[in-house]
Amino acid sequence: MKISQAVGNVCTIFTSHTQQQKTEDSSDGKIIYLKDIACAIKSQVALSAFTSYKVGGAAEWYVAPDNLEALQGSLEYAKEQKLPITILGAGSNLLVSDHGLPGLVISTRHLRHSHFDPQTGQLTVGAGESIPSLAWEAAKLGWQGLEWAVGIPGTVGGAVVMNAGAHNSCIADMLVSARVLSPDGTLETLTHPQIGYGYRTSSLQTSESPTDKGYQRIVTQATFQLQPGTDPAQVLAATKQHKKHRLTTQPYNFPSCGSVFRNPTPYAAGWLIEQTGLKGYQIGKAQVALLHANFIVNRGGAKASDIFSLIRYIQQQVKERWSICLQPEVKMIGEFQTAG
Ligand SMILES: Cc1cc2nc3c(=O)[nH]c(=O)nc-3n(C[C@H](O)[C@H](O)[C@H](O)COP(=O)(O)OP(=O)(O)OC[C@H]3O[C@@H](n4cnc5c(N)ncnc54)[C@H](O)[C@@H]3O)c2cc1C
């Protein structure tokens, strides 16, 4: 059964095909309409609107394709123009620099479709589908397997790349395969072992090195193995329980990126930060959350540079006290100034 197909399209005003490439000036920048592609590339788009931290400067160029053809066309354009590429899901694990990002930012949020196959118990979904929405949909159908993911406010693509996880489960536990578009335009299906999963990592992640940009592979779709056939009331109750637990233990009332640091086994990063006396510590409008010390929250009007400085400060303080180097889980992209 099909439960959703290409819903929500911010590109609606750009969706007519054009016979040849053309550029238009608008009040807030340029719009490039690619030949035969029903989605336009816009200049100087504020990324603060597309990140959960609500910070970040503008993308030099921004596109949100709603189908594979438009995605391939956008990639082709970036290649021709020698633009570096950044892939954006829901922006819930990103700290984007106040100076913005050069090149083309490709948002996957409109690559949306989902198919629950009752024969196999497999769920095949587009990269832009929201993980919490899928968790609720699966629960309503009585399919077990995604209850744990209801509090992760990302897309399918971001979750596959980050190996998102919670409550002792993670994406790697259920991923069957992912369809991936390479920078050279090749589309291939990678199976679970080919993705090389580890704790919050996968071989699909790139480093923050600018030389890696343009070589990022793009997840376009993923297939998950779930377990159909349970009473929906039972799966809904478990999903609600997970959501409730998150709301009481994590600060969902301020913009954040979730956990800032990976847990350095056997310690929890939040515990180390709390024991270092940093709960509530603030730089500008960025604050170590009072409810959970591994969260940095934007108390309203924070700059990316405030959050970045706080990340560095926490690392330095924890290193001094515990001789442990906390590794960020959040991806910091663009230019940041290191003090000293
Ligand atoms: C309140 C809150 C709670 C959170 N709780 C959790 C939690 O419990 N567990 C957890 O693991 N995470 C958690 N997170 C972090 C975040 O939601 C996850 O890491 C999520 O998987 C990121 O998905 P995204 O779509 O937002 O990716 P983004 O943040 O947009 O991108 C993350 C990285 O993935 C890349 N990427 C995104 N989509 C694609 C794609 N289609 N193809 C290739 N590369 C891609 C980006 O380039 C970037 O490098 C939380 C975040 C918030 C704000």
From TrEMBL:
Transmembrane segments: none annotated. Its cofactor is FAD. InterPro entries: FAD-bd_PCMH (IPR016166), FAD-bd_PCMH-like_sf (IPR036318), FAD-bd_PCMH_sub1 (IPR016167), FAD-bd_PCMH_sub2 (IPR016169), MurB (IPR003170), MurB_C (IPR011601), MurB_C_sf (IPR036635), Oxid_FAD_bind_N (IPR006094). Pathway: Cell wall biogenesis; peptidoglycan biosynthesis. This is UDP-N-acetylenolpyruvoylglucosamine reductase. Keywords: Cell cycle, Cell division, Cell shape, Cell wall biogenesis/degradation, Cytoplasm, FAD, Flavoprotein, NADP, Oxidoreductase, Peptidoglycan synthesis. It comes from Umezakia ovalisporum FSS-62. It catalyses: UDP-N-acetyl-alpha-D-muramate + NADP(+) = UDP-N-acetyl-3-O-(1-carboxyvinyl)-alpha-D-glucosamine + NADPH + H(+). It comes from the Bacteria. Residues 54-229 form the FAD-binding PCMH-type domain. It is an enzyme of class 1 (oxidoreductase). It is found in: Cytoplasm. Its EC number is 1.3.1.98. One of its GO terms (molecular function) is UDP-N-acetylmuramate dehydrogenase activity. GO terms for biological process: cell division; cell wall organization; peptidoglycan biosynthetic process; regulation of cell shape. Pfam families: FAD_binding_4, MurB_C. Cell wall formation. GO terms for cellular component: cytosol.
